[in-house]
Amino acid sequence: MAFFDLQPGLKLALWPRASLARDVGISVTPKSATEFSLAHNVRSKAEVDAVMAQAARAGAHVLKAAEDTFYGGYAGYFQDPDGHLWEVAWNPQLLPPE
Question: Is 7 part of any domain?
Answer without folding.
Answer: yes
